[in-house]
Specification:
The longest helix is centred in the first third of the chain and has 29 residues. The protein has about 270 residues and is mainly alpha-helical. The chain has a domain of about 180 residues. A two-stranded antiparallel sheet has the order 1-2. The protein starts with about 25 loop residues before the first helix and ends in a 20-residue tail after the last helix. The radius of gyration is 19 Å and the shape is globular. Helix 1 packs antiparallel against helix 7 and helix 3 crosses helix 9.
């Protein structure tokens, strides 16, 4: 197997922004990051430039599980959540959840060498945490500082790691080998995991769960059309995910189709 050399991130990239407590997990974490890059770089490329889905049979089985989970739990729960909580409260919960992700965005900005984005996301976090009452209000966006989401999957892309095979993950949904690695690393390196106490972490998890229910409720008709109205919901979801991810990374989609975001709010709300 031909290994692809991966650029090493600058050793001091995250130091100006985040201090992880005592750096107790620094060396194992660094080893994990480098291992993740190496594994992602070894993933096989798709044949003929098409969709790389060598695990389709297993993925379809997981997809059926996820659709059943949505039908029996997520969709009914989101309907209750959406009807019980008024829209301003749902938006507030979503804002809190997004604000808790900002430190992870900053860290990935620095790992990618994007100082401008890192400064903007850091300022957003500070402003929304203080003036926005813990992130309940998106004060930063109100003054023109739009969110700039980032993740370790994108960092791996910047470092040269391949996308790898398409995966459908239980509970999490569509992903790729590179993006799944990124999801795991993002969870491990989010600075707030070291800063929040037990009760605060539980509150953060509740906010994240509420935000997901709010998103499921808000885009209910679109998600239903994909999962329950498509002739092949697995293929439809796979296509939309890969197109969306390529669009986010700024690369030409391998599907050779123009990407139209099914979750875009045409009214700007």
């Amino acid at each position: 197997m031909r290994r692809r050399q991966t650029p090493r991130p600058q050793a001091t990239a995250g130091a100006p922004i985040v201090e992880l407590r005592r750096m107790t997990a620094a060396r194992p974490l660094l080893f994990s990051l480098l291992a993740a890059v190496a594994l992602a770089g070894c993933a096989p490329a798709p044949k003929g430039g098409g969709i790389n889905d060598p695990y389709e049979a297993q993925n379809r089985a997981v997809h059926r599980f996820n659709v059943g989970l949505d039908k029996d739990l997520l969709k009914p729960s989101s309907n209750v959540y959406g009807k019980v909580l008024p829209a301003p409260l749902r938006q507030g919960v979503s804002n809190v959840s997004s604000n808790l992700s900002e430190p992870s965005y900053v860290l990935n900005d620095l790992l990618q060498g994007n100082l401008a984005a890192g400064v903007q996301n850091l300022f957003r976090f500070v402003l929304n945490t203080t003036a926005g009452v813990g992130g309940l209000f998106d004060t930063a966006t109100a003054i023109g500082l739009a969110p700039r989401p980032n993740d370790f999957g994108r960092t791996l892309h910047v470092w040269g790691a391949r996308q790898g095979a398409y995966l459908e993950v239980p509970f999490l949904g569509p992903s790729t080998e590179r993006d799944l690695t990124g999801t795991i690393v993002d969870f491990a390196i989010n600075p707030l995991r070291f800063a929040l106490n037990g009760n605060e972490r539980n509150a953060a998890l509740l906010a994240e769960a509420g935000a997901k229910l709010g998103t499921r409720y808000r885009f209910s008709s679109t998600i239903d059309s994909i999962l329950y109205g498509s002739a092949d919901s697995y293929a439809q979801e796979r296509l939309l995910y890969l197109q969306s991810r390529d669009h986010t990374l700024g690369i030409k989609s391998k599907t050779n189709q123009e990407f139209l975001d099914p979750y875009e709010d045409s009214y700007g709300n």
